[in-house]
TrEMBL record:
PANTHER family in UniProt: DESICCATION-LIKE PROTEIN, OS05G0151100 PROTEIN
Lineage: superkingdom: Bacteria
InterPro entries registered for this protein in UniProt: Ferritin-like_SF, Pigment-catalase-like
A Pfam family of this chain: Ferritin_2
Protein name: Ferritin-like domain-containing protein
Amino acid sequence: MNIFNILSEIEKVDADVHERLEHISRRSMFSTIGKKVSAYALPALLATTIHKAYAATPGAIDVLNYALTLEYLEDEFYKMGNAAANLIPAAEKPIFTQIGKHETAHVAFLLAALGNKAVAKPKFDFTAKGAFADVFTNYKTFAIVSHALEDTGVRAYKGQAGNLMAAEDKPLLEYALQIHSVEARHASVVRRLLNTKGFVPGAKGWITLNQGTPAAVYAADDNLTQGGVNLKGLAGKSDEAISEAFDEPLNKEQVLAIATPFIAA
């Protein structure tokens, strides 16, 4: 997260951003951070400052809590997976350790941004009511659930971006998109692992048509019409190649239907 860039971008839509940030100048703010706060804590610190400076609309609060619930899910999943004995091979352990750190930072950021409006963390059932009974004992199952959660997160953030378009929510939209792009990188690296480990031969870093498991995660991702234009046969490209060039959103109802089996209470 490039914090200097964030403040510069906010200035484009709000010339009074520094006055809003409790009259803290950019130089003094980051001097304080450099002395007292670790780099790992920066997202939460910035989110807290933004929370104080900008009042989000009720709709934005709902979107951020929706995102927080998904981040809770992913964060807990990687904490449990990384802690499970003999689950993740040594060669891939750094990948999932780093993804876990990212998810923890996302949770911290959203909690700080929401303050006392944040929803409580649910209890999770990562077997999804028995569908993935060996998720923390079988590496293949773990990797498949990981890629499904990451792909769901990418499509979920995309599906809610339009609900953060109110002027007072624009800074929150930027932060949500910053999380979105990192989730996409997670999805890509895990999808490639599925191929290299032989779990899903031919799997790529992007989604082909609506191929993937569970099927609900990839519903309608084989759409070939973009911006009202049917791209089928474009420049002699196959349907597979065209679908790989575009990613579709999932609405809240679709995402909740995917996530519900993983939520115990």
